[in-house]
Design goal:
Layout lengths: L12 H17 L4 H8 L3 H9 L6 H11 L2 H11 L15 H18 L6 H23 L8 H6 L4 E4 L6 E6 L11
Antiparallel strand pairs: 1-2
């Protein structure tokens, strides 16, 4: 993880607890004990315990070192998650089943916001862009509200090719021709 993680703020109790719980889970899944990680980083076992319980503040550098010691794909993914600068949407929990889709939605909404600031944009186009922006926000709210407990199976839904967004009024549901990622839809519909 790069020094980008230096922007991490662990100043709230809730954030400290969340980071600590995820670090603890990642460490256990990797088959490491608190003592293993502490010894590798020259921390005391008590320090590791306080970090994982959220009782102590952790610097971005400490978190980065702990994740590097755990060294699993999930640990790297958590490091990336911590350094993501969410701008348009609230950052979902790391374990949220639609987190990566919500991140893509945040990036799309940023691009839309930037487009709407263009002074040469024609009024009719602005209205269509605003409708698209509203649809992305609506889809994001839906994705935010879904969880494994809700019975909604996002992967099944996506495999059925419902990952497209729609432009215009929802009742009209005209295909926008753009996938969730913002990439052009192939002409053959694949």
């Amino acid at each position: 993880m790069e020094s980008e993680s230096a922007t991490l703020k662990t100043d709230s109790n809730q954030t400290r607890r969340m980071v600590g719980q995820v670090l603890s889970r990642l460490r256990r899944v990797a088959g490491l004990t608190q003592a293993d990680v502490a010894a590798s980083l020259k921390y005391s076992a008590a320090r590791m315990s306080r970090l994982e319980s959220g009782e102590a503040d952790a610097t971005a550098e400490e978190i980065s070192q702990i994740l590097a010691t755990i060294d699993t794909p999930s640990a790297r993914e958590f490091g990336d998650y911590l350094s993501q600068p969410w701008a348009e949407l609230s950052q979902p929990p790391f374990e949220h089943p639609n987190r990566s889709d919500l991140w893509r939605a945040d990036l799309i909404l940023r691009r839309i916001s930037a487009l709407l600031t263009e002074p040469d944009l024609k009024n009719a186009f602005v209205e269509q862009v605003k409708l698209y922006q509203a649809e992305v926000r609506r889809a994001s709210e839906f994705l935010t509200s879904t969880s494994p407990k809700s019975g909604f199976h996002w992967e099944h839904w996506r495999r059925q090719d419902h990952g497209d967004l729609f432009a215009g009024r929802p009742s009209v549901a005209r295909r926008a021709g753009a996938r969730w990622t913002g990439e052009p839809r192939p002409a053959n519909g694949a």
